[in-house]
Amino acid sequence: MGKAFLRAIESGKTYSIDEKRFESDSGELLEVAYEFGSMDTKALKEKFAQRGSSQNPLDKSGVWRFRELIPFMRSETNVVSLSEGNTPIYSAPKSASYAGVKKLSFKHQGLNPTGSFKDNGMTAAVSKAKELGSKTVVCASTGNTSASMAAYASRAGMNALVIIPSGQIAMGKLAQALDYGAKTIQIDGDFDDAMRIVQELAEEKSVYLLNSINPFRLEGQKTIMIEMLCQRNWKVPDRVVVPGGNLGNSSSFGKAFKELRELGFIETIPKITIVQAEGAAPLYNMWKNKSKKLEPVKAHTLATAIKIGNPVSWQKAMNVLEYTKGSAAVVSEKEIADAKAIIGSDGIGCEPASATTLAAIKNLAGNGIDEGEDIVAILTGNSLKDPQYTVDYHSDSLFEEFEGKKKKISAAYANKPIQLPADAKKIKHEVGL
Ligand SMILES: *Cc1c(COP(=O)(O)O)cnc(C)c1O
User: Fold this and answer.
1) What is the DSSP pairing of strand 405-409 with strand 159-165?
2) Each residue of 288-297: pLDDT tens digit?
3) What does the pLDDT read at residue 169?
4) I need a labelling partner for 71 at 20 to 30 A (CA). Which of 165, 244, 371, 386 fits?
5) Could you give the C-alpha distances from 113 to 121, 193, 216, 248, 390, in angstroms and in order?
6) Span from the CA of 241 to the centroid of ligand 1 (angstroms)
7) CA of 384 to the centre of ligand 1 (A)
8) Does residue 151 carry a pLDDT above 60?
9) Of all atoms in ligand 1, which is nearest to the CA of residue 117?
10) Is residue 82 within 8 Å of 155, Cβ to Cβ?
């Protein structure tokens, strides 16, 4: 197996993989880098496929099955796994026709153990935390990171400390953090405030930070793309579309494709399109204006998972857009809400942030995205995370509140519940039986 180290993304300065460190001495982001050596890619592809039917817990995990491509652990006995990954790729004919494209499929990361792609990253980072001997792990969260961290920390026998913006995270996610036993602190502030606070807390020796500034999270999330390629018999799609919040996921996808190409697993790479909500689009603004530095915004969107105004991994994400010749996109609240209902009509639930993908593909079809492209969109979270949003939408009573102003989001595909007396005749009449 290869040698692993931490590397600063600009200067290239390296640090030991055993250091508890989240930035370089000069404040740059870090990535996990490897000296992979040469690989028998054909044999490894076969091995990855065979492991799918093995009973070894490492092989059953949709992350650790690909361990040769994330070789940063000193000992496999420290791995903390909940059989994460193993998520399906769905065809989606109604969504494709809504967007006006021919070949669209969804890889549904919401079907992970805690209901979001955060599990792919969390198994990696909590395993590393265990290897480093950490007793307490901490994160700021818009909800899914805390749900996932709480579960993996409990599996590992660690204390979990979660900092969340009060009243701004979806009920399902809060419920999970409480249920998995995390100490849950609700602050009077937004995600960006919570992020600032946990970085301060993480200066304590005994505390390990599990936000996506933690480079091991991104190593786990790389396997989302590796698994996708495996499922497609290594046929590379033309484009991958992914929502962007703190920009860890999109960064990890780019890293996966870069390494897979350098190692000879694939010859071409897909373009990556990163989608943000209109009210939380600092990366899109930067990309559109070709600016050199990210300008933070005060974020607002009902897609709370991507309600982030000052994303940590913007430099990595910009590098990915450049490397993959990708693009950034922005969608409105109404476009997100309607797209979510269309994905639902394909029999596939997802949370609002995930539906930004379909909304963007519809906007860009014929104008940035070729209608014939083979597109894989990533559904990042489970529909049951935020049922109130869905019920409000279908009752045509979905509102966004921003700076004291309430704005209705009109639901083009509302499927309202119908109130009737307990009388079969009346129900028959209503539904035309
Ligand atoms: C965390 C999350 C995102 C945003 O991912 P980043 O890596 O922060 O860009 C999008 N959707 C869902 C459901 C999430 O939980």
Assistant:
1) unpaired
2) 999 999 999 9
3) 86
4) 244
5) 12, 28, 19, 20, 21
6) 13
7) 16
8) yes
9) 15
10) yes
Please determine, for residue 403, whether its predicted confidence score (pLDDT) is greater than 90: no
If DSSP codes are grouped into helix, strand and coil, which group holds residue 30? strand
Q: How far is the CA of 243 from the centre of ligand 1 (A)?
A: 7
Strand partners, 36: none
Residue 335: partners with Cβ closer than 8 Å, 6 or more residues away = 359, 362, 363
Torsion angle (degrees, nearest 10) of CA 199, 203, 204, 209:
50
The pLDDT of residue 173 is 94
Name the residue at shortest CA distance from atom 8 of ligand 1.
246
d(CA 246, ligand 1 centre) in Å: 7
Residues with CB under 6 A from ligand 1: 116, 118, 144, 212, 243-250, 305-306, 351, 353-354, 380-381
The identity of residue 404, as a single letter, is G
pLDDT reading at 1 higher than 80? no
Q: Which helix (H) or strand (E) holds 339?
A: helix 333-345
Distance 231 CA to ligand 1 centre (A): 22
Closest to 169 measured CA to CA, from 355, 314, 330, 306: 306
Q: In which element (H, E) is residue 408 found?
A: strand 405-409
Q: Which residues pair with 164 in a beta bridge?
A: 186
Dist CA 222 CA 212 (whole Å): 13
Q: Which of 241, 301, 380, 389 is the best mutation target for the ligand 1 pocket, counting ligand atoms within 8 Å of the beta carbon and taking the most?
A: 380
- Return phi, psi of residue 361, to 5°: -65, -40
Atom index in ligand 1 nearest the CA of residue 252 equals 7
**Ligand 1: centre distance to CA 350 (Å):** 12
Candidate of 144, 211, 242 to mutate for ligand 1, largest count of ligand atoms within 8 Å of Cβ = 144
CB 238 within 8 A of CB 373: yes
Cα 377 to ligand 1 centre (Å): 13
Q: What is the pLDDT of residues 202-240, one digit of tens each?
A: 888 889 999 989 999 999 999 999 999 999 999 999 999
Sign of the alpha-carbon torsion through 66, 71, 76, 81:
negative
86-139 confidence digits (pLDDT tens): 999 999 999 999 999 999 999 999 999 999 999 999 999 999 999 999 999 999
Longest dimension (CA), the chain: 75
Closest residue by Cα to atom 1, ligand 1, is 305
